[in-house]
């Protein structure tokens, strides 16, 4: 998650203090990703170092230091909003890695491993669904964040079901007659290893 760009977006509306930025970030993201004020000020220092924001501590006396976006920060924000995130390479997903490793480990019941994770993910989906029903009806940012998480978890459950079925079918299939051609296929398809 880009806290850096989220703060630039909030500052594009006008000068703000660090605590104010934290409160607005949490309110606009449905309070799904808590942010501590130390992280906000650390990010603001980096943004100021990079010339993307300016502090205006001379404008008002007092302990609060306000920040405003610069022209460079506005250009950075505009570029971020219109640039798709890098979705080309698969993310390093701990659950996927765990299942891939478990498949080749002797003595491991992969079906049991998959089902344990599936139960956990379904419980999480139930918790998010309750949150949606109880709190998200009149809170658009929270509703959007909950929808995103429910879709993500649903895809995890579908992958676990597909993996479980594929592993069961592979266990029933006879062994291949020769060495696998997978490395050559990966190279031809351009898949990175």
From TrEMBL:
InterPro entries named in the record: Tscrpt_reg_PadR_C (IPR018309), Tscrpt_reg_PadR_N (IPR005149), WH-like_DNA-bd_sf (IPR036388), WH_DNA-bd_sf (IPR036390)
Start and end residues of each Transcription regulator PadR N-terminal domain: 7-78
Domain Transcription regulator PadR C-terminal: 92-163
Gene3D superfamilies assigned to the protein according to its UniProt record, in alphabetical order: Winged helix-like DNA-binding domain superfamily/Winged helix DNA-binding domain
Region span, Disordered: 170-193
Provenance organism: Actinoplanes ianthinogenes
Pfam families: PadR, Vir_act_alpha_C
Record-given protein name: Transcriptional regulator
